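All the exercises in this workshop are built on plain-text protein records. The record below serves as our worked example for the rest of this section.
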Amino acid sequence: MKVKIFETKHEMGKVAAEEAARILVNTIKEKGEAVFVAATGASQFEFLENLTSISSIDWSKTAMFHLDEYVGIPETHPASFRKYLKERLINKVHPGSVYLINGDAEDPESECERLSRIISEKEIDVAFVGIGENGHLAFNDPPADFDTEKPYIVVELDEACRRQQLGEGWFKSLDEVPRRAISMSIKQIMKSRNIICTVPDSRKAQAVKDCLEGDISPEHPASILRKHKSAFLFLDKNSAKLLERGKYA
């Protein structure tokens, strides 16, 4: 995994977006289509703002999968990740195909099976992800399931994860934060040919340290990225502040 540290999250988002664009453009040239996975949350703001402004990407030749979504909230809810992706990505660039997670489906397990059937027929060229304050990757909270072969799974959200969502301003109270979500599994994320992980802000510093300098473990779900052959971790100086000095030049 390649680690890059920047002075500001704005610079981090710009360089991460340039790397993402390079992968998408090259893949379209090679294969005629690029398949990507989009994440949400505050960590993706600068990245998506920069990515959607890059004119060299032929978005009509892309297919987009959705990383995770809460169970039981409608798309109209302020915290809906479908709403987020439509506002910050889909309605701006119009990918050729979009596969969103229906979080308020009557049967979340059936929704996982529907999406799993679709994604199993695709090769993911690049996944855009972040790292949670508890070290989660997508909504795979610790201890994450590193073994399931299912592409999409229903997961229980731990309190640290739910408090993060509250702290980012998506909900008015902890009780409002859903306790379950549909998430892309760890193994499915790791099947991506490339992974771009953007992690700004000091509140993520301990998780970054645990995932980079601790054991590769389900207790630190994003630590698994260290096993990927083409993963890029983009940090700002605040999220990198607890890392061993000089180790990540």
Q: What stands out?
A: Helices lie at 9-31, 45-51, 81-93, 108-119, 159-167, 186-190, 205-213.
